[in-house]
Specification:
Layout lengths: L1 E5 L3 H12 L3 E5 L11 H7 L5 E4 L5 H13 L5 E4 L8 H9 L4 E8 L4 H4 L2 E5 L2 H14 L9 E5 L3 H29 L6 H7 L9 H12 L15 H12 L4 H13 L5 H14 L11
Parallel strand pairs: 1-2, 1-3, 3-4, 4-5, 6-7
Antiparallel strand pairs: 5-6
Helix pairs in contact: 7-10, 7-11, 8-9
Organism: Candidatus Mycolicibacterium alkanivorans
Keywords: Gluconate utilization, Oxidoreductase
Family: Belongs to the 6-phosphogluconate dehydrogenase family.
Length: about 300
């Protein structure tokens, strides 16, 4: 199958390679000429045979908005656009409308797999009509992991459902990572434990907490014991926030995922204003000692 691929970053670049190895003709566009197959979106549209399928793999937000709008101007009725980035599900309807006015179909695809997707395959959660999903199915088949179709691929519902599923997936990921990280810290704090990495490595087989994330934690510890070269500053890409917002909207209790999100916020504070206030209060009501900031100079 022929596919246009917009965005050749860490994931898009590997997706192009996996698809080509799977026998597909992939023509990629990226602003960086050293990785791009064509010089512009217009050139990409011209290089593809109508009816075209173009997969967008760029950062969510304004860049995706601009890309969708630009594609609506260079593609033709009967073409189809897949947004495989981490767009918020609420953006899918407007994107579908922009393209739909030109007779262009739209599919949203949540993609999981990161840098490992090239070798292992990508988990895919897609939203759109049955007809549009069937049209892109040869691409999905090559990108997903080998094995049963239901293990690694789901047509989650209409437009927006794919990115909604990926949002919840990433919210769960926040909670899982926090649990593993807290367990690591407790193991490392106990003198009885002589090899924290070995304990976490041992969990990889036969235990109920074994998982890919757990195996990656064991790998990371083997490469950098005690994480001496890593800062605790932890960013969030948006999906965790959106998951918590949806939990509030639907009145679904989500304490673990919410706490993991707030822990990321705390990681960015050199000196927590909250804990300063707690220390001040303890001093006020109980006369407890406070640690004073040393005077400079």
């Amino acid at each position: 199958m022929q596919l246009g691929l917009v965005g050749l970053g860490k994931m898009g670049f590997n997706m192009r390679q996996r698809l080509r190895e799977g026998g597909h003709q992939v023509i990629g566009y990226d602003p960086r000429p050293e990785v791009s197959d064509v010089p512009s979106l217009a050139a990409l549209a011209e290089a593809l045979t109508a009816p075209r399928v173009v997969w967008v793999m760029v950062p969510s937000g304004p860049i995706t908005d601009e890309t969708i709008t630009s594609l609506s101007e260079v593609l033709s009725p009967g073409d189809l656009v897949v947004d495989g980035g981490n767009s918020r599900f609420t953006e899918d309807g407007p994107h579908a409308e922009i393209l739909g006015r030109k007779g262009i179909s739209f599919v949203d695809a949540g993609v999981s797999g990161g840098v490992w997707g090239l070798a292992e395959g990508y988990g895919l959660m897609v939203g759109g009509s049955d007809e549009d999903i069937a049209r892109v199915m040869p691409i999905f088949e090559t990108l997903r992991p080998p094995g049963e179709l239901a293990d690694g691929f789901v047509h989650a519902g209409p437009v927006g459902a794919g990115h909604y599923a990926k949002m919840v997936h990433n919210g769960i990921e926040y909670g899982l990572m926090m649990a593993y990280a807290e367990g690591y810290e407790l193991l490392a704090a106990e003198p009885l434990i002589k090899d924290t990495q070995a304990v976490i490595q041992a969990w990889s087989n036969g235990t109920v907490v074994r998982s890919w994330l757990q195996q990656l934690l064991a790998k990371a510890l083997k490469e950098d014991p005690n994480f001496a070269d890593i800062s605790g500053f932890t960013e969030d890409s948006g999906e965790g926030r959106w998951t918590v917002e949806e939990a509030i909207h639907h009145r679904v209790p989500m304490p673990v995922i919410a706490a993991s999100l707030f822990a990321r916020f705390a990681s960015r504070q050199d000196d927590s204003p909250t804990m300063k206030a707690v220390s001040a209060l303890r001093n006020q009501f109980g006369g407890h000692a406070v640690k004073r900031v040393p005077l400079s100079g």
